[in-house]
């Protein structure tokens, strides 16, 4: 197997692990009460209108994803 295929194989494994991790998070999300309800998440509820923007949850997810990608780049 050439070096370009080894890189592709590693990338596919990495994205498979990330996809599996997202699946686990989706399965466990209802059991973890603080996901989506962190301080800083914006919720505006009015009659016939609800606006929800998970600002802090997005920042935490971005931080975790950035950390995972940084670790992946260090392992290469």
Architecture overview:
The protein is α+β, with helices and mostly antiparallel strands and 76 residues long. The protein folds into two domains: 1-32; 35-76. 62% of the residues lie in helices and 13% in strands. The chain has two helices and two strands, in the order αββα. The chain has helices at residues 3-28, 55-75; strands spanning 42-46, 49-53. Strands 1-2 form a two-stranded antiparallel sheet. A hairpin with a 2-residue loop joins strand 1 (42-46) and strand 2. The protein is elongated, with a radius of gyration of 18 Å. The two termini are 17 Å apart. The relative contact order is 0.09. The model has no long low-confidence stretch (mean pLDDT 86).
H and E order: HEEH
Q: Tell me the span between the first and last alpha carbons.
A: 17 Å
Low-confidence stretches: none
The tally of domains stands at: 2
In percent, how much strand structure appears in the residues? Answer: 5-15%
Described by strand count, sense and barrel closure, the largest sheet is: 2 strands, antiparallel
- Silhouette: elongated
Helix content class: 55-70%
User: How many strands appear in the DSSP assignment?
Assistant: 2
Number of helices: 2
Strand order of the largest sheet: 1-2
Rounded average pLDDT: 86
Radius of gyration: 18 Å
Classify the secondary structure makeup into a structural class.
Answer: alpha+beta
